[in-house]
Amino acid sequence: MLTIRLARIGKKKHPFYRVVVTERSRPRNGRFVEIVGTYDPQKKPSAVKLNNERVQYWIGKGAQPTETVRSLIRNPKPA
Questions:
Q1: Of 11, 12, 26, 31, which one has the fewest beta carbons inside 10 Å?
Q2: β-bridge pairing 64-65 and 2-8
Q3: CA 29 – CA 74 distance, rounded (Å)
Q4: Within 10 A of 45 (CB to CB), how many other CB atoms are there?
Q5: How far is residue 44's CA from residue 64's CA, in Å, rounded to a whole number?
Q6: pLDDT of 77 above 70
Q7: Which residues contact 10 (CB under 8 A, 6 or more apart)?
Q8: 2-74 belongs to CATH 3.30.1320.10
C-alpha cells in the first residue's frame, strides 16, 4: 500500500522535509516512488511547496496521506 508522508532531509536541529510517495513498509528516509513537494517548518510562516496535480494523482491511485501531510494539503501556506 502506498502512502504520502514526510521524509526528513535537514541537518541536526534544522529540520527540512520532502513530501514523498512511498510504500508504507519502507523506512522513513528509505526508497520512495516520487517527490511531490517540500515542507520547511523553520521559516515563519512555514513554507510548503506541493505539486497538487501529482498529489491528487497519487490519492486517486489509492495512496493514503499521513495526518501531517493531510493537514498540509488542506491548509497550504505560501512558500
A1: 12
A2: parallel
A3: 24
A4: 9
A5: 28
A6: no
A7: 16, 17, 42
A8: yes
Q: Which residues pair with 3 in a beta bridge?
A: 22, 64
* Closest listed residue to residue 50, CA positions, set 26, 22, 71, 29: 71
Length of the chain: 79
Mean pLDDT across the stretch 48-59?
Answer: 94
What are the angstrom distances between the C-alpha of 76 and each of 25, 33, 47? 27, 23, 9
Order of strands, sheet of 17-23, starting from the edge strand that comes earlier in the sequence: 47-50, 34-40, 17-23, 2-8, 64-65
CB atoms within 10 A of CB 66: 14
62: left (phi over 0), alpha (psi -120 to 50) or beta: left
Does the pLDDT value for residue 26 go beyond 70?
A: yes
Q: Tell me how far apart the alpha carbons of residues 55 and 79 are, in angstroms, rounded to a whole number.
A: 17
